[in-house]
Amino acid sequence: ETHTPLASKVAVTIEVPVLFPDPPIVTPARELSGSSTMVTPTAHSESTEQTSGSIVSSLTMSPDLCMDDEGPDCATLRLGDEYLTTEAPRQNFLYSCEGPNPTAPGARESRITWINFAQNTWNFLQKLWLPAGEFTPAAGTYSQDITDKERKITFNNLPLDGKIGDWPMTQYPDLTRIDGNPGVPAARESSFVYALNPVLADKPSCLPLGTIGVTVNGVALFNAANGRGDDAVAREIVDVFGGHPAMTMYHYHFIPPRLDTEFLEDGHSGVVGYINDGFPIYGYLGENGNEMSNNDLDECHGHDHGHLGYHYHATIEYPYTVGCYKGIVSDGNRENTRPRRP
């Protein structure tokens, strides 16, 4: 990714090709009653229980990112609940503009089987995910209009590649026992205007609830926490494609590994999105194709090297995408966020 200005006052629309692969293969084992979706039970799931004729089952997945010896161990990821701060940016932390709201909705802790609360770790490989199915919303849209100074991104918060889970989740009572999210994704056009050559701020700033950036497949990116201030990726049910709705607004709290498919010559991941200060976020791999961890990144979850300049990286550990804004965020982009589900 380069930041060389284009010719003055010449607008360019970038059409982004759909190059995203399917998510990791899920091995079928048992069918949910009344559904054609095949599921795999977790090793430490709750005992079988009949609920309105349904069979308690689970869906798990194993991305390639978790199947090698590099990076964090996906079976013992650090739970992010205690790593939210409103005081100052810190490495490994989410610097949030809002403190925890214990009355906000969220998953039922007593029914979460993939978190070890005694050790404050969680197991990505045992987490339950909403399966794919018949849900078909409107087509996703995403475009970039670039002038000599600005990058305007317009999108409708639905995946450009059409890959989305079988919402509403209320069709799956065994999942809604854990997370009662009633949302149904729908098209919601949004746009952000970023400096083509973003500038570092004098000091980092906090991240709001709601949209902190947008991925290149047209889905909004939220920070790592839910409204309660807890680790949203670890606790909440999202679909096998990596997203879930806040009311009608589909969004990600982490970068789905399936989006990390474009690489630079040395194996470094390509751009997977843009953060609201204008700096790009790259995928999971850094220089020479090495998987990134929090130890490789600063307090805002980014670093500066070579011709890429400053940029953020996705990691499989909390805070997953961005810990704070390293650059200057325009007033318009600060205001152009969306609420979480009530």
Question: Concise description?
Answer:
This protein is mostly beta strands and 342 residues long. The protein has helices spanning 173-176, 232-235, 331-335; strands at 12-14, 30-31, 38-39, 50-51, 54-55, 77-78, 84-85, 94-95, 115-116, 121-122, 142-146, 150-155, 190-195, 200-205, 211-215, 220-222, 243-246, 249-252, 271-275, 280-282, 302-305, 309-313, 325-327.
Low-confidence stretches at least 5 residues in length (pLDDT < 50)? Answer: 1-57
Overall geometry: globular
Number of domains: 1
- Gyration radius (Cα, Å) is 19 Å
Helix content: under 10%
Counting H and I runs of at least 4 residues, what is the number of helices?
3
Sequence of secondary-structure elements? EEEEEEEEEEEEHEEEEHEEEEEEEH
Number of strands: 23
Largest β-sheet summary: 8 strands, mixed
| Euclidean distance between termini CA atoms | 37 Å
Give an overview of the whole structure:
4% of the residues lie in helices and 23% in strands. It has 3 helices and 23 strands. The protein has helices spanning 173-176, 232-235, 331-335, and strands at 12-14, 30-31, 38-39, 50-51, 54-55, 77-78, 84-85, 94-95, 115-116, 121-122, 142-146, 150-155, 190-195, 200-205, 211-215, 220-222, 243-246, 249-252, 271-275, 280-282, 302-305, 309-313, 325-327. The strands form 7 sheets. It has an 8-stranded mixed sheet, with no helix packed on it. Strands 1-11-12-13 form a 4-stranded antiparallel sheet, with no helix packed on it. A hairpin with a 4-residue loop joins β9 and β10. The longest helix has 5 residues, at 331-335. The chain is globular and about 50 Å long. It starts with 11 loop residues before the first strand and ends in a 7-residue tail after the last helix.
